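Course assignment 3, question 2. Fill in each field.
Student: A.L.
Task: Predict the tertiary structure for the chain below.
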Amino acid sequence: MNECYEVLIVGAGPAGSTLAALLGRRGVKTLLLDRATFPRDKVCGEYMSPEALGTLDRTGVLEKVESAPHRKLRGIIIHAYDGRPVKGTYRPVGSHAPYRPYGLAIQREIFDEILFR
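Answer field:
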């Protein structure tokens, strides 16, 4: 490989793939590397807030993510140490409105593959 790159990104998870896509759209010669072979199984981080969907839209993959098997999340429930639940919904607060009125839950194996490609 005798290519010359301006940026080398190691790790093709959500952050690395998103950064590579954004830099590539700006014409930056970018190489994205990962030691894993995709698709890969990865447990964790299968939930995204509404604001994360704005980032996916800017990278041009939101439509692909939403066409894959997923669930829409309208809010969250957090359980305190004593077991009491606190519920929050994704809705406008003051002058701020979420990018979408929902977040997403999608398997990381599927999500990472879409971002990587």
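Instructor remarks: The first helix runs from residue 14 to 25. The longest strand covers residues 75-79.
Grade: pending
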